[in-house]
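Notes from the 1:1 (GR / supervisor)

We went over the backlog. Supervisor wanted to see one worked example end to end before approving the batch request, so GR pasted a single chain during the call. The sequence is below; no edits were made to it. Supervisor asked that the structure be written out right there so they could see what the output format looks like.
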Amino acid sequence: QGVWTNSYGGNVAPDLVGNVRIDQKAFTFQVSGALHTVSANYYTNGNPAAPSTVLEPSGHPDAKLGGSVLAGLQLKNLPTGPGDKFSVDATWSKGATKYVIGGVTGNNFDIFGGSPPSPGSYQTFAVTQMFDAVYGTGSQLELTTAWGVRAAFVHNWSPNWETGVFASYSKIDYNTNATNGICAAQARAVAGLVNTATGAAASQGNGYSCNPDFAIIQVGTRTGWTPVKNLTFSAEVLYTWLD
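Structure output shown during the call:
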């Protein structure tokens, strides 16, 4: 049955998005904002053995209004060469995590590693989830805070060749109530896997710990070749670290 379930209530209202942009020869500056309604599914029957069973008569959390703000700056006509540009932007959101880690990115992030934390464990394993909000049976929505910064520099070697380097840092932060709820469900699930007979909590054994907050750090470079207009061949290398 897993640790927690995705109980998204669907789109009940469109996001409202607006921006103000200044585009000059030397720079471009933009400030954007968005409002997002967070809606959840019905409460479950309260049975840990069947957490995915939702019952309409049991009600549901009240919808909450979340949102996001973004500010971005691009510098052009740099002394490093014609066509070079440097871009930086920052985003903050509450209950609207897709504005920080967006596009077609899913909400599940897993990572495996070496060096077992303790005897009896096979390597290391981390599972993280990205939710707009967290709630339990009978509780209200706890909106998730997320923020991120990104920067990139593009250099033109010639009219046909360019190289860019870029980096980003994104952070997902669950508040205390959301953290306690997630970790309680996680402990029950792991305890059931480790010791079904006694139900002993696994949080103190095999190096297990629970902290749903996480960060994603990325560093990369891309080189493109444009032999003719509207045709570009490129190669990219990207390193991603899940913290």
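Supervisor's comment: The longest strand covers residues 214-228.
Batch request approved.
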